[in-house]
Amino acid sequence: MSRKKTGYPVKREMNLFYKPDKTTKPATAALYVLFVLVLILGLSKITVYDLWVETNQAEQQRDLAAQRLAAVMAELEGYDEVLDQYYQYAATEEEQANIDRMEVLALLDKAMGRTGEMASISISGDVVQLQFSGVTLAETAQIVKRLEESDLVAGTTVNTAATTESEGALVQANVRIQLQRKTPEGEEGDAQ
């Protein structure tokens, strides 16, 4: 096997085909411009349009909140008048310190029961003046005992219990009752 030495390649023809550079043509330039515009548009969507949309939404929420605030403020327009009426009809501190009159009347009704007849009741602060008649002295003592058993009563004083007739006759009695607030177990009431 012999190897023949082949010679070096030789170019015997000239290639006259020339491919022109199309990168300078208007169509290529237009593609580059279009690419740059797409990039700018994409960036402007992120940096401008999205921020603009968020700003509009925030402004709409602000306007909605302003409308709600205006509606609430319109509702509060007469607040000073309502507050004045409240203070006019609400209990003062002095009135709140008083013991509930309905509790006192319920206590008197329970203590008297069906015996006797209440002639007058006067409640001033924490003092009750009770005048009743149509009971015996023993029944008067029972009524006073029932009053003193209540948590509302700090003490009682029978001012008068008199009759002009014999023993066992009906009397007219005046009782002064000192009231106190109900207190939880273990605490003392503030009797005055």
Give an overview of the whole structure.
- This protein is α+β, with helices and mostly antiparallel strands.
- The protein contains five helices and four strands; from the N terminus they run H-H-H-H-E-E-H-E-E.
- The chain has helices spanning 26-75, 79-89, 93-97, 101-112, 137-148; strands spanning 117-124, 127-135, 153-162, 171-179.
- Strands 1-2-4-3 form a four-stranded antiparallel beta sheet, with helices on one face.
- A hairpin with a 2-residue loop joins strand 1 and strand 2 (127-135).
- Helix 4 (101-112) packs antiparallel against helix 5.
> How many extended strands?
4
- Write the H/E string, N to C: HHHHEEHEE
Helix vs. strand class: alpha+beta
Question: What portion of the residues fall into strands of 2 or more residues?
Answer: 15-25%
Stretches with pLDDT under 50, minimum 5 residues: 186-192
Average pLDDT taken over every residue: 81
Helix content: 40-55%
Summarize the structure.
By secondary structure, the protein is of the alpha+beta class. It contains 5 helices and 4 strands. Helix 4 packs antiparallel against helix 5.
Question: What brief labels describe this structure?
Answer:
four-stranded antiparallel β-sheet; alpha+beta; 4 strands; 192 residues
Describe the secondary structure blueprint for this structure.
Blueprint: H1 26-75, H2 79-89, H3 93-97, H4 101-112, E1 117-124, E2 127-135, H5 137-148, E3 153-162, E4 171-179
Antiparallel strand pairs: 1-2, 2-4, 3-4
Helix pairs in contact: 4-5
